[in-house]
Amino acid sequence: MLSQQLNAKRQASWQIYQIYRNVASKTTLAQETISLEQAKPYAEVPGPSKFQMIRAFMPGGRYKNAPAHEMFLDLSRQFGGLFRMPSIAGTDMVLTMNPQDYATVFRNEGQWPYRRSFTTVEYFRKVRRPEVFGEYDGLVSGNGAAWGKMRTAVNPILLQPRNAKLYLKNLVQVSDEFLERIRLIRDPVSQEMPDDFTEDIRNLVIESIGSVALNTHLGLLGENRYSDEANQLKAALKDFVELGFQLDMMPAIWKYLPVPKFNQLMRSLDTITDFCCTHIEQALQRIEEDVKAGKMSPEMGMEASLLEKLSRFDRQTAVIIAMDFLFAGTDPTLVSLVGILLSLAKNPDKQARLLEEINQILPGQRLAPDH
């Protein structure tokens, strides 16, 4: 089951990559010779009409319950590598299958390029929970000068290579727990994982992020695997990915009419926010108590944790960055790691080569900072 699902996702990703590559190779030379004065008016950008889009999302329509990648692939086949999705209850979207177009757009938008953000997240932060977020939007959904201010402030904290050493011991512990989980659940005969192994990988990803962003051992690979808090957090993160796409990328009816899925997403964002706030406060309290009691380890005494540094700058920033870690890190890391593990499992020769390289670097040793 897991193999079939991952193969389908990988095939879709390959199809999208092929379209990107083909369209990019055909348009590169043309782009170099076209000036801004020669650009066609926006009205000539091809794409479906509003009626066609409404009909496509209705029961029996070609995009009803269709995965996003299939919809975009179908539109590109109909209208070419650059097409427009008309607004029904929101803002028009122009999509390009040429990666070079993104660089062109951002380099010509001035100091603060605008990225279309998740309007549902923006509503949540500014309308539903302003007491938590204040004037900050975060790195994932922010724009303009406010985004630039936060990025400038947190870059020196987040991008220092030495910070990785702070969490090596904790992340090795998380990896050991994951390996122990694998030994426990794999089939003793076939050595294969159960169909729900993706959930164990999800727990690994969230546990790792929690170690860095929240200074907390959540226990998702062990004692707290089935706790109510863990289940609520994982369900909320899934809602963010699935409902966020439906509400932000599809017609924004929620802006004008009550939509149950919008209310569900708001509750899920509440869950994630409260989870981060609770664990950050607990972690900071532990840090303060350890400092007073002189219990800080030598490693942590030499270099403050990311959470501690961010909280010194602003506690709101610490909460927002922790949430950004969960939003931006959980699902992409999950998909990437699942794909890597599947590829290794299906290619034993590559798996053996990887093991050989690991043994050369770590001959019978545990991972250490000097590796």
Number of beta-strand segments: 2
Number of domains: 2
Average predicted confidence as pLDDT: 82
User: Rough shape?
Assistant: globular
The helix/strand order is: HHHEEHHHHHHHHHHHHH
| Estimated structural class | mainly alpha
Assembly state (oligomeric): single chain
User: What is the CATH topology descriptor of the largest domain?
Assistant: Cytochrome p450
Helix segment count?
16
Model regions low in confidence, pLDDT < 50 over at least 5 residues? 1-31, 298-302
Biggest sheet features: 2 strands, antiparallel
Query: Could you state the CATH homologous superfamily of the largest domain?
Result: Cytochrome P450
> From the coordinates shown, what is the CATH architecture of the largest domain?
Orthogonal Bundle
Percent in helix: 55-70%
Radius of gyration: 23 Å
Residue fraction in strands: under 5%
Separation of termini? 37 Å
Q: What would CATH call the class of the largest domain?
A: Mainly Alpha
Protein name: GL23701
Main location: membrane
Pfam families: p450
GO molecular function, one term: oxidoreductase activity, acting on paired donors, with incorporation or reduction of molecular oxygen
Give short descriptive properties of this protein.
globular; two-stranded antiparallel ribbon; about 375 residues; mainly alpha; 2 domains; 16 helices; Cytochrome p450
